[in-house]
Amino acid sequence: RFYFVSTADLLDILSNGNQPLQVKKHLTKLFDSLAGLKFTEGPDDPNACTAVGMHAKDGEYVPFQAEMKCVGAVEKWLMSVLQSMRITVRTFLTEAVAAYEDQPRDQWALKYPAQVALTGSQIWWV
Q: Is the pTM of this model over 0.90?
């Protein structure tokens, strides 16, 4: 993901890697359609943050299935963010596909994140 980031942004990310709140402004350049992460600050150190969810560019908020610590090397915790995104979407998708016929489609679509509702609809259509 660092291949498509400008040199100035990359230097800022790497130099502030242990401060997730400083790296947060670069997430839109690293992940498609991600506006930012929702953090809860740790009780001991305000720089040791825990990510609890993600905000999309359109304003949608999706909570992670499990909180994740953003500590250590920036490339490692960014990979953990990616894994959390995948796990969260996969979990929601499994739930959405199973619940598709349980309620009216308009209610079903609004209950899940947009990506999950679109993919679940396509699965049922096929």
A: no
**What are the φ/ψ torsions at residue 84 (nearest 5 degrees)?**
-65, -40
Alpha carbons 69 and 40: distance in angstroms, whole number: 10
- For the residues of 52-89, what is the DSSP string, one character each? EEEEETTS-EEEEEEEEEE-S-HHHHHHHHHHHHHHHH
Distances, alpha carbon 55 to alpha carbons 45, 46, 51, 64, in Å: 24, 21, 11, 11
Q: How many helices (H) and strands (E) does the chain have?
A: 6, 3
* Gap between the Cα atoms of 122 and 107, Å rounded: 17
DSSP 8-state code for residue 39: E
pLDDT tens-digit readout, 61-112: 999 999 888 888 888 988 999 999 999 999 999 999 999 999 999 999 999 9
Cα–Cα distance for residue pair 65/18, rounded to 1 Å = 23
Give 5-47 pLDDT, tens digit per residue. Answer: 788 888 888 888 788 888 888 888 888 888 899 988 655 655 5
Look at residue 38 and give its three-state secondary structure: strand
